[in-house]
Amino acid sequence: MSEEKKEEKMDRRKYIKYVGAGAVVAAAAAAIGYGVSELTKPPPPKPTTVAPPPTTVVTTVPVTVTPTTPPPPPKAYQLIKWNEPMPAAQRLTAPIKVGPIPKEWIEKYPYLLTYFPKGEAALEGYVLPEGWKEAVKGVEELVVTNDGALKYDPATVLNGLLFEKLTGIKVKWIEIPSPDMHLPKAAAIGTSRSKDIHVLYLNWPLEVLQVTSAGWAHPVDELWPPEVQKLYNPYLVEMLKGLDGKFYGIPFIVVPYLIYYRKSWLKGAGFTHPPESWEEYSVMVREVNKWAKEKLGPDYYGDGFPGADATHVLICISFGVYAQGGRLVKDGRFLIDSPEGRKSWEHWVSLFRDGVIPSAALGWTIWDHWATFAAGKLGFSFAVPSYTRVWADKEKYPTIYNDFDAIPILPWKKGGPLGSTHNSTDGLFINAFIDDNYKAAAMLYLDFMRSYQALFNEVVVEGNDSSMPAVYDHPYVKEIEPYYAVKKANTEAGVVEKFPPGFGIACDIIKDYFHKAALGKMDPLEALKECQKKIDVALGVKPP
User: Fold this and answer.
1) According to the model, what pLDDT value does residue 491 have?
2) How far apart are CA 22 and CA 19, in angstroms?
3) With 221 labelled, which of 122, 271, 361, 416 sits at a CA distance of 20 to 30 A?
């Protein structure tokens, strides 16, 4: 508003009349003629003093008015009231209703019964926040990337159908055939500022850091008040933060590991219970290896190792590091030559040198490692939790059927912290370049996918692991999942770290030097020392 000055108008007298006798005398003189004595002249009129009217002085004081701009209208996603009709934590964990999956859905997507033929799921529970209808006006479909083929992800499809039933918004998935393609896909979308895909699937902490730092993901701080953060593994919540401290995306399932072992092998070797620490495991696996070779043959071993996969070599070492309370990243430096790293490194190298793990395992992929255990050739293995269900198939895995059990990743010493780590974290992130109403719909989808209802379906329908540990406390889960307590413990303890750029290069270097140490070509600790030097040089880090 512009500044205006206001003045008051004042009435003043415009005419003053002077009346006096002199005026009359002058008129008479003019009538009788000139010559009248000066003495006869009347005195000059006395001036009449008339006081002027009082003057009112008006002082105009300038008023400074700070210009104000009307606030912009709220963006579509800002119309959603996440804490209404109840606090967000209560909306997300509202009681669920379990029932049969609709027949028409099963007819259209028969793979909904692949991992759980009983065909039941949580059909109700999640409570939509207020204001969502106005926020998503004009959105009929969300396009979401998915890790692999949908036929292997029945819970994802089921939850998409439930979301459509709730909101009327259809979910269309783009199948990404390889995990290595998620980051390039996100980069292509980000650099082109494309609006074609609304929600991005990412499964590595490093990918999250790169995508958020580049500005390709939309921040979702609204979804993460403190009471909601408490529902999930704290490492997973921290992983969602960008370098700017904002939250990006949600975790919905996690992929930790369990230790699997053959019950009959431990019994044959004289043990009545599985190991309770890595120190106990080190003794037990050697005895199991000895028993297996004596009783079953020379091509049977105490354990295996996915030595061909650089990432999984690091994961194996991380078990021991985390079990001792250590970390692989310190002050931004990728650090494997630490006190905890040395112990874990020597542990695995010694198993190769002592013949407990075959040297051929240095050429195994993670799939080879699992297949060898399933074929009955190993006493121990580590694998994803879903294999508690997969290997329970008598027709496909008769050798180990009813003869395996699973425990969490062990602490280094009995009673210490578990060494659990999440191999990958399946998270969903919003494309920063889509329109605001689509951002609102995408945020709504993320909110649903992290809910108790959706995560219950991941556990029950597909055998996945929930990022919300409380799901394992549901009576239905306890009834159908014999390993619910083990999985809950692993989910709660699983460590997730943000690795610096160059993570893949570091893993390749670790794999190379681990092979040299395992085959006896280098002293184990000398190999680790050289490995750390190479990593520092490759990642451009100066050691302290």
Assistant:
1) 87
2) 9
3) 122
Q: Which of 400, 304, 109 is nearest to 387 (CA)?
A: 400
328 contacts 539 by C-beta, under 8 angstroms = no
According to DSSP, residue 129 is labeled P
* Alpha carbon separation from 410 to 9, 153, 275, 299, 516 (Å, rounded): 93, 29, 8, 26, 26
d(CA 285, CA 410): 13
3-state secondary structure of 216: coil
Q: Same structural domain for residues 396 and 532?
A: yes
Give yes or no: residues 279 and 171 share one domain.
Answer: no
Dihedral of CA 227/231/235/237: which sign?
Answer: negative
How many residues are listed for the chain in this entry?
544
CB atoms inside a 10 Å sphere around CB 209? 21
Q: How many domains, in total, are found in the chain?
A: 3
> How are beta strands 170-176 and 141-147 bridged, if at all?
parallel
Domain ranges, residue 337: 258-419+501-538
Residues of the chain with pLDDT under 50: 1-41
Query: Which pLDDT belongs to residue 514?
Result: 98
Token pair of 375, please? 């074929």
pLDDT at 12: 33
CA-nearest of 482, 483, 457 to 468 is 457
Are the C-beta atoms of 274 and 266 separated by less than 8 Å? yes
Does the residue 3 lie in any domain?
no
Other Cβ atoms within 10 Å of 260 Cβ, number: 24
Query: Are both 308 and 272 inside the same structural domain?
Result: yes
Q: Which residue in the block uniquely carries the two structure tokens 């003794």?
A: 283
Query: What is residue 64's predicted lDDT score, i.e. its pLDDT?
Result: 63
Q: Please check whether residues 99 and 113 belong to one and the same domain.
A: yes
- Reported pTM: 0.81
Q: How far is CA 305 from CA 256, 369, 498, 514, in A?
A: 17, 6, 24, 12
